[in-house]
Amino acid sequence: MALDQQQPQASLESDEQIQIQEYKERVLSSYQRLHGEIYSLDPASFFVPSFLKAVTPNSEENLKSIMVQSAPGIYTFEMLQPKFCEMLLEEVLHIEKWAHDSKSLIRRPGTLNTFGVVLDDFGFESMLQKLLEDFISPISQVLFPEVCGSGLDSHHGYVVEYGEYRETDHVAYHMDDSEVTLNVCLGKDFSGGELYFRGVRCANHMDSEIGEEEHYDYPNVPGHAVLHRGSHRHGAKAITSGIRANLIMWCRSSTFRATTSSRKDFPRWCAKCRVDRHNSKRPE
Ligand SMILES: O=C(O)CCC(=O)C(=O)O
Ligand SMILES: [Fe+2]
């Protein structure tokens, strides 16, 4: 199985280098919001009580009480209220209708996601940044100290959709351009579409073989989140009926990216580096 590194889509078309900032300004000046209340973070109405309780006050013990480590390095937990999921899905449909009616292009979320909406382009940037800083970064510092020790400080936030009229039903095997990825299923009714995970690798070993113990398939549950390393190789299987939409946030750490020592650290978390190092130390 060959693996891609998924990147955000830089421009609307390769021969038309429209600057993202100009694009956002144009969108923001003409798009009329449907649910204004979901553009500012309101923890009590966005999150389920168990998530809120676990993160406030933010203690390691509280956090670990709701996080299930479903497989090594993959944490799952209930996160979003059904009402919030519904409103976000309606907003996404409203954005798509606006794009259709105004003959505007929508920047696709990534090089592999052909259908969806970059929320940051439509006014959700500060809400998602607050979600990152107040919730996802502190959680990730506890769960993924090897890459998030100094905290996460930027994001790429989008909704992906699969199924009828959505051009595609799956996403190919890849790694994300993130330290940590938050992926929350918004609904609605679908079957299939499981996320599959195949082990964490550094950039040098993206395509290396998959260990038997590295296979893990996760069935999406509306309102439930998966938190995983961006370098945890993954993809999404085809849905077999209905429409699936997920909120995804690629979370990054500028400190981690700027630290060269972080690159020498691969054997701490890349299984292939670990094996190579072990083999090179073995006497002939
Ligand atoms: O379909 C999904 O839920 C996962 C998509 C994904 O991995 C991505 O957008 O990077
Ligand atoms: Fe991904």
Automatic annotation (TrEMBL):
Keywords: Dioxygenase, Iron, Metal-binding, Oxidoreductase. Residues 151-253 form the Fe2OG dioxygenase domain. Its cofactor is L-ascorbate. One of its GO terms (molecular function) is dioxygenase activity. InterPro entries: Oxoglu/Fe-dep_dioxygenase_dom, Pro_4_hyd_alph. The keyword Iron applies. It comes from the Eukaryota. The keyword DNA-binding does not apply. It holds the Pfam family OGFOD2-like. This is 2-oxoglutarate and iron-dependent oxygenase domain-containing protein ICU11-like.
